[in-house]
Amino acid sequence: MQPDNISTSSHLPSCQSHVSVSAPAFVLDLHDSSSPDLQRKKARIDSSDNRSAITCFGKVTVTLDREVVSDGCCSNEKEASESAYKVLWQHLCIDALSEGQTYKSAILEYFNKHGFQNPAEEFVQNDDDTTICKLRLSGAFIFHDTVGSTKKKQAEQQAAEVALKHLAKILNRGPISETEKNFKGVLKESLETHALSAPVYDTDSKDVPGGTGPEPSNLCVIQTPVKQPSVLSTSSHLPSCQSRASVSVLDPQDSSSPDLQRKKARIDSTEIDMLLTVWNLKPPHVKVENIEYDENFKCTVEINLENFTFTNKQGYDTKKKAIHKTYMLFGCAMGIFEASIDEKTSSLQVKQHFSQKSLALPQEDVEGSAKAFCCSLKNITYSVIYEEQGPSECEAKLLVLKKALGALSPLFDYTSLTAANSPEKVQDQLSFMLKGADQKDPVISLDGSLVKTSIRLNFTDHTVKCTCKSSKKAARNHLSLRILSLLGVKTDSDSQSLRNRLDEWFKQQNLAQPVFEDTEEALGAKATFSVQFTCCSPGWENSWETAKKKLVEELKQRFQFLND
Predict the structure, then answer these.
(1) Which of 87, 314, 400, 435 is buried most deeply by CB count within 10 Å?
(2) Helix pair angle (544-559, 472-487), 10° resolution
(3) Is the pLDDT reported for residue 67 higher than 80?
(4) Neighbours of 455 (CB within 10 A)
(5) Mind listing the pLDDT tens digit for each residue in 529-549?
(6) CB count, 10 Å around CB of 180?
(7) CA distance 496 to 523
């Protein structure tokens, strides 16, 4: 029987784990502490079988082989590498960067500190001359049960539960049911889904008199360095997925907690399986490698200006230009229009916007003389909301605060402010800037999460045909267009070099080029190809169900290119 009062907490970034265990309470008659009955009770307690205090603590080793992909496409390898390390840094929630420190140096320092093997870098060149960086993380991750049990099997179940809580995202599974008992079975099934080795369990027995648990180690998760694979598998990266950060690392945040996991709907692949059956896309020629979800958190910052004065101290040749430029700066900062608009219409657009909102118009005041006219907009009362998304609540908050600080600083006579690297510090920057102009503090709101689903398909020796064109060359060109469209590669359908475009794309992905042949029909052609590619739901959605539905719709559009 486990002690009643046990509280555990673990947080991966700092890898600290605290366990407080209250010793079992024995209710005794305190009126006569020297009574024989009481003395006999004490003797029974002191001489109780020590074996009942032996507690088993489970340990499970999970071997992973996953990758982290840079967020979007970058112009060179250095930029792509830093982007990938930033994605990893965001999901590990490591402390804010020190001055002059890069995301890569922060990650490497963190890995070295905890004895982790450094990620292996792989670069993929896209057809638009942009670069993607993939960080390969592989090795054994050890999870410890810090609660303990008198039974070995229960200790192993508790260790499996700890592993599942931390690996929910990396294994792309939904929430663990509140009534779940067989955590070992769920963990084994989740690993098998990704063709990963079965978990290995071990238990330690500790003699803990008085019910005190073992002293927890400083690291609740330990990675055992292993030899990196000499060849890294390459998967295609499509334009439609460039905003997607493929996360295959431990998420140390509370997103793996049961409370938040229960909010996530498990991705049901029934509709996708039905769609693949209808299109006869079945093994061995077509396999589903992975179905996964990504999550982004939304955060907003509301700024409420009251009787605010914006003075543009830049001098201009004419009063009219000073007015237009000042309205231009103000409108851009408030998000009323983009910086690309014609500045001559800026004052009109701002005034129309204020009128539509039934707000008092700013009062213009121009001062100065020839070639040194300065304009001020006075008595401004206006509310603006900035919104951003990030892979964690912390990152979303940091991004939106930086956005607000960057947009507003020119209005408060700060032409170039360097934002800090933590949301708390940026919030201080923004608050003090506003207070300096007698304005209210920003109002920050976390607005839940957005989701996106994706599927990775593996086509092996799959053949498509074309018999509807006027020549063999036209048929092969048309086949090239269809394969590129299936992959989600945007092309010009009128291009005369689609065949070259297709060969170039496969070459850049280090894949064998499609094999073209003539068909029995005089002007027909067929192409056989092997490729692994990812298809994503087009945008971020408010629910998993909507994201999955959009993914199915996207697949339907892609599969249409398989037929003439």
Answers:
(1) 400
(2) 170
(3) no
(4) 23
(5) 999 999 999 988 988 889 989
(6) 14
(7) 18
- The residues, ordered by sequence, that sit 6+ positions from 49 with a Cβ below 8 Å of its Cβ are none
d(CA 513, CA 528): 9
Question: Is residue 303 within 8 Å of residue 408, measured between CB atoms?
Answer: yes
What tens digit of pLDDT does each residue of 290-349 get? 888 888 899 999 999 999 999 999 999 999 999 999 999 999 999 999 988 999 999 999
Reported as half-sphere exposure (CB side, CA atoms, 13 A), residue 499 has a value of 14
Burial 150-167 (b: 16+ CB within 10 A, else e): eeeebbbbbbbbbbbbbb
Which range, 114-123, 201-210, 215-224, 336-345, has the best average confidence (pLDDT)? 336-345
The H helix count followed by the E strand count for the chain is: 14, 13
pTM of the model: 0.50
One-letter amino acid of 503: D
Q: Do the Cβ atoms of 351 and 344 come closer than 8 Å?
A: no
Q: Catalogue the E-assigned strands of 70-191.
A: 120-125, 131-144
Q: What are the two backbone dihedrals, phi and then psi, of residue 381, each rounded to the nearest 5 degrees?
A: -125, 110
Distance CA 121, CA 126 (A): 16
